[in-house]
Amino acid sequence: MAEVSPIAKTGPVADPSAGAATAPRRAGRLALRLALTVGYRLVMLTVLLALVFAAVELLPGDAAGAASERGESAAGIAERRQLLGLDRPLWERFGEWMTALPTGDLGTSARGQRVTELLVDPLPNTLVLAVSAFVLTLLLSLLLGCWTAARPGRLADRLVSHASTAAFAVPEFVVAALLLLLLSLWTGWLPAVTVTGGDGRPASWTMLIMPVLALVVPQTGWNTRVVRGALADRAADPHVEAAHFDGLPVSRILLRHQLPGAAPAIATGIATSTGLLFGGAVVVETLFNYPGVGAVLAGAVAARDTPLIAGVVICAGGVISLVLLAADLVRHVTLGGRA
Q1: Given pLDDT bands bounded at 50, 70 and 90, which one contains residue 144?
Q2: Smallest Cα–Cα separation from 210: which of 101, 117, 132?
Q3: pLDDT at 217 over 90
Q4: Does residue 262 contact residue 230 with C-beta atoms inside 8 Å?
Q5: Segment 104-116 mean pLDDT
Q6: How many of the other CB atoms lie within 10 Å of CB of 69?
């Protein structure tokens, strides 16, 4: 019998340069995917802003009429309309606003003030509120989702499942009203409204508690179900079942085997809920008299102030797009370019 060479027994020797060659290709695919994603987000933001301009145009009245005083003549209103550029076609006004946007110019409001100056104080307040709610939602959702995933079918799993469904079904303004009754009117633990200091910020950090909780409760309900479902899907993976057969601790299996595989679905679900969180922030800010962009947006809609409305939308849309981009990056890196 002919002797079989060691090379034939072991198979072809792996080329060490193969792994090094794939690294640049992966980086190139990642860069291309990020560029396409950024381009897609920019196109969607442009479409959204165009819809904002069109929607305000379809509302009854305009900024010139909304700013007019009682008894003002039609000639005076027409003159103001010309000063505001409302006599020009909609597409021309939109194109001018979009052309100035890359330079950071958000235009001039109907009252003659720069939109950036009107947003410089309330926007950071809204970001503090939204980011605080987002971080707390993320932590609670991961904690509750992992805790119930480690106890599938048990009483704790069923209770959290029902509670999370009920929490997501309750709108933010209902949660805010209940918090006002419980934590302010009945117990007096927290102030019912937000009082601002001389710098335009809430006078005390305790005034953030109820607005943040009003946003966290519904979003935690939704994202807990997302985390629980993603972990349940990964529980059927062969390597997870093998880890159970090997007798590994449940917590180790959950954190080292299920959670990494569930990361793309969890990141996508939590990032998608960011838009709902910002939308709820507008309502919550109004209820608690919080000095954010909610009051600015409400006043801008009443005044038919298109540049100010568009300024609020582009700021919120930019933040949401960044969160979605981060979720896309997590998904791509975790799946190794397969998604």
Answers
A1: very high
A2: 132
A3: yes
A4: yes
A5: 88
A6: 7
Copy the structure tokens of residue 49: 């802003």
Q: Please report the pLDDT score of residue 336 as a whole number.
A: 59
Output the CA torsion sign for 36, 42, 43, 44. positive
pLDDT, residue 69, reads 66
Distance CA 298, CA 116 (A): 17
Q: Which residues contact 63 (CB under 8 A, 6 or more apart)?
A: 84, 86, 110, 303, 304, 305, 306
Rounded-to-integer distance, Cα 87 and Cα 79, Å = 10
What are the start-end ranges of the E strands in the chain? none
Please give the model's pTM, rounded to 2 decimal places: 0.81
Confidence of residue 140 (pLDDT cuts 50, 70, 90): very high
Closest CA to 330 of 127, 41, 130, 37: 37
Tell which residue, 202, 137, 132, 213, has the closest CA to residue 172. 213
Q: Which two tokens stand for residue 99?
A: 């052309």
Between 63-72, 124-133, 179-188, the lowest mean confidence (pLDDT) is in 63-72
Q: How far is residue 9's CA from residue 2's CA, in Å, rounded to a whole number? A: 13
- Residues in the chain, total: 339
Phi, psi of 251 (to 5 degrees): -65, -40
**Reduced to 3 states, what is the DSSP secondary structure of residue 202?**
strand
For the chain, domains (ranges, CATH) are 122-290 (1.10.3720.10)
